[in-house]
Write a structure and sequence with these properties.
Radius of gyration: 17 Å
Mean pLDDT: 82
Structural class: alpha/beta
Number of strands: 6
Strand order of the largest sheet: 2-1-3-4-5-6
Strand content: 5-15%
Shape: globular
CATH class of the largest domain: Alpha Beta
Number of domains: 2
Helix content: 40-55%
CATH superfamily of the largest domain: Response regulator
CATH topology of the largest domain: Rossmann fold
């Protein structure tokens, strides 16, 4: 299956470099280019891509707002967004995930890692660069403690096994690793994942991770 991608970046040279790189792969097709967030939103609606590569700082509308609009559009529920930026500032990471991004990579990411990110996110998984993951956890550590009532209201929807799976997802484990650790089949883990996404009204794994930290189910630095 061919992965349809739109590249959004206000710098033409950077944008073209991404287009050339991705177009060299037989399973990836670049179906549009955007120089600002408004163009990105319009292209998402017209092209219905599998994935958007979205710069953060763009004119007219920034990448975070564009991501928020795409993620909030029910007709684009199959479109995933990977944020690409030269800025690894904590507020960008956290806000990008809140906006609905499924991945976050720096522009100096190696070409092979960028291509892998496109495939991973298009397949439905979340991807955050390891260095950014560490910063993200540090950001969660600085957030106020979640209100007990709010956290309980979120988590009480889950079975004990679903909580266990959510905790392992938040710790970065893949479905295969979770299956091995819990001595269940990958298909069973996939079922638990589907139920978690539905119950918590989450778009993908990235938002599950955020919810796990925000509710206090997982704490930064916890075992």
């Amino acid at each position: 299956m061919t992965i349809k991608v739109v590249v959004a970046d206000d710098q033409a040279l950077v944008r073209k470099a991404f287009v050339v790189l991705l177009s060299s792969e037989s399973d990836i097709e670049v179906v549009g280019e955007a120089a600002n967030g408004a163009e990105a939103v319009a292209l998402a609606a017209s092209e219905q891509p599998d994935l958007m590569l979205m710069d953060v700082r763009m004119p007219v509308m920034d990448g975070l707002e564009a991501t928020r609009r795409i993620s909030g559009d029910e007709s684009l529920s199959a479109t995933r967004v990977v944020i690409l930026t030269t800025f690894d500032l904590d507020e960008y990471v956290h806000e990008a995930l809140r906006a609905g991004a499924s991945g976050f990579l720096l522009k100096d990411t190696l070409p092979v890692d960028l291509i892998n990110a496109v495939r991973v996110v298009a397949a439905g998984d979340a991807l955050i660069a390891p260095a950014i993951t560490r910063r993200l956890i540090a950001e969660f550590a600085r957030l106020p403690e979640p209100g007990a009532a709010t956290a309980d209201a979120v988590l009480e929807q889950l079975t004990d096994r679903e909580r266990e799976v959510l905790e392992l997802v938040a710790k970065g484990q893949s479905n295969a690793e979770i299956a091995a650790g819990l001595f269940v089949s990958p298909a069973t883990v996939k079922t638990h994942m589907s139920r978690l996404l539905m119950k918590l009204d989450a778009r993908d794994r990235a938002q599950l991770v955020m919810l796990a930290y925000e509710t206090g189910l997982v704490s930064p630095g916890g075992s």
